[in-house]
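Support request, priority: normal
Reporter: lab tech (M.K.)
Component: structure prediction queue

Hi team, I submitted a job for AAA+ ATPase domain-containing protein from Alosa alosa yesterday, and the status page still shows it as pending. I've pasted the exact input below so you can check whether something in the sequence is tripping the parser. The sequence length should be 859 residues. Please let me know if I need to resubmit or if it's stuck on your end.
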Amino acid sequence: MMATKGLELQLIPCDTLDKNTQRCRIGPGLMSSLRLNIGSPVLISTPGGACLCTAWPRNDLAEGYFQFDTKCVTPNFRPIHNPYHFNCEDIRPLNGQKLKRIKVNVVVKSSEFKKRIPPHLINDIVKEILCGVYVHEKHIIAVNSFETEMICIHIENVNSGSTKVGLVTERTCLELAAVITHAEHSRRIAQESSRISIGGMEDVYGSLKELIHLPLFYPNTLRKLGVSCPRGVLLVGPPGVGKTMLVRSVVKEVGASLITINGPVILGSRPGESEENLRAMFQQAREAAEDGPCVLFIDEIDSLCPKRAGSSSAPENRVVAQLLTLMDGMVSRDHFVTIGATNQPDTLDPALRRPGRFDREVIIGVPTLTQRKSILEYLSEKMPLSCSVDLIALAEVTTGYVGADLSALCREAALQAILRSPEDTDVKAIEMQHFHEALKIVQPSCLRSSIGLTDYKPITWEQIGGLDDVKLKLKQSIEWPMKYPESFIRLGLLRPKGILLYGPPGCAKTTLVKAAASSSHCAFLSVSGADLFSPFVGDSEKALAQLFHQARACAPSIVFLDEVDTLLGSRGDTRVPHSVQAQVLSVLLTELDGIGLKTMERRGTQRMLCVSEERPESQQEHQMEYHEVCNKDVMIVAATNRPDALDSALMRPGRLDRIIYVPPPDYEARLAILRLCTEKMPLDSDVSLEELASQTSLFSGADLENLCKEAALLTLHEKTMEASRIQQKYLIKALQNSKPSLSALQMESLLKARQDAAPRVIFELPIANFDQGKMAGFIHLLRKRKELIPLIGFVGCAAAGAAFTSVYFLLTKPDVIINRSTNPEPWERIDPSKPQKLITINQQWKPVEELELVKSLTK
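Reply from support: The job had stalled in the queue. We restarted it manually and it finished. Here are the results:
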């Protein structure tokens, strides 16, 4: 028995007598090795598609040659140009059986045939044509006859088990699904092929197709225009995004042959072997280009051509030099394009990334919300999904997932459905809860090596007691831009880049950030000093830059800097002039300003400068259009209990825009926290949480949680392990043994920091000397001066008992006031006699000229 692994067969034209017989001719030795009998069905894989044939020995019994007839092929099958060499692995034996039922579509030249011939007669004609023919599901049978207007027969469904292959006999029941024209059939095939090929990458697909199609099919036109054809395209994108799949789809669409080079496979052990292998692949590409358009695809090119260094990397340097020489030698050849793919473009040798070699670079970013929805629709097309599955909701919670991650997510959801179903029943449908379980297992690949990846349990706002004002401000900064992007675009608003939470320890600053990340479905990255600081020079700055790179790759995302005062510090500290903290702070400021944005961090779709007038079909899809505009930023959230230790450059607008004070819980907040902490505890009827809340002044949320735990432990200690309820006396005893973590000195320093961070009052004047009408006239006068920054409004404090009215000039775009009900309202409709709550980004600005104008008006 001859060995078939690695054996190549030369393709030669089919014999005249074998045409339209579905026969393939191979040597008898190969038939014996593949365990084939005469007439056994085999599936032949070619660059132009697949073909179903029956195996027959060659008449001359010669080995090493291959012939086949293209009677049963896949749609859009493209003939192969000679000479071509097949691998024996491309011939796959199949187990064909006699079919009981088959469903077909008949493709005709015109619709007149369907009107002229009755359906039962068409059924008989098709049955006679297919009798004795092996068919494959989703394949077409060519009808080479001048006696009928039929072009081909499309096999829709074959009832033959998992192989989808079978023999049509006289007993086979044939069902005629439809009779369609050739134009309609071509349209359906093209639509199905494009949907399968691109799956959410329409923009990149079109760009790559244009770059390949022009030099391959219109080289003379480009030459007449006096321009050279682009000979190289470099695909850049993270792993699993679909670079290889995209190349194969585009090459199949343009009808070119594909030759693939895997970087690690080219490298040899002996000197000169790598260059020899590379020259052999290029020679194969040259020969293929003589017979038709050809694409040479170099996958993982960064492993083949790293940056050239000293003598220690001489073998790699020779490979790079050889590739440069070979690419320069292909400039004058037509019908040839080189495509490289990498996920590390910075490690490539710079000589490759210039015009004349890799002329263009196509960036494939992490899929956006709309692209993730398209990918999920394609992946779940053949999955039995329940009506509870919401693909748009899945696309929203899979931020940072690439195509490979989404494929793994669907596969894991199917496994969860199997594991959670009874053993004696079949899985009828995949529920939404199965996808939720799969999300806990499958993480985005772009974050698997991230230093800030944190595995945390999702937290809701209701699980945090009190702090209603702080929750509202966080929702405005994080949730609102994502849930209501249309409103933000209409008002010209951009969400803040950064938020600073400051307050005493144990007051739920970290928990608030986790709740914001959970509610907004953002990728959450948390960084501490242990993650960043390194004994090696430059490692801390590099780690922080890498963190922002990964956060941008999976945007929208939240980067949480806990205890930011220990991470960064202040550059004004002269005791440590060249500390690592100051250098890390410098990197953070640069990243916040967006200067260090790398090329491969670009998104897959362009930002929309204005919203299209053509609205999608549903309201959900309409909102997704706005999500594509807004939700691509990285939000920085920092937390500290020492805001005075931070650098002033970090606190300015444009970096940490919103500064939010997280106060210690008051009576109402303490009562809410106690109710949450004792929600799952069996309390006795004598327990009074109101009394406990009144006695826990200066207790933080963490202190109150610890108090409840101590009371439960005291109950077990006093009443042994059989205790069933917690009494009031144990709560009081635990209170006596506990002391608050907050002190009056801490509260005084935080109150001072809060006053410093408050919006600056430009001018104060008694109401007796300046009535509301005069104030309104003054504001109207200021609004007419176009050189002024827009005036938002003013706050009337008379109703609250204050003796002055404060005028706030705030640096922000919208001309609205947002009151306590969070409803946007034009400032002209605001009643200045009633107290209003301005919710806006904190700004500090002193208009000296306007201050003098106020003084002159109050004389």
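Residues 199-363 form a domain with the Rossmann fold fold (CATH 3.40.50.300). The two ends are 112 Å apart (CA to CA). Let us know if anything else looks off. Ticket resolved.
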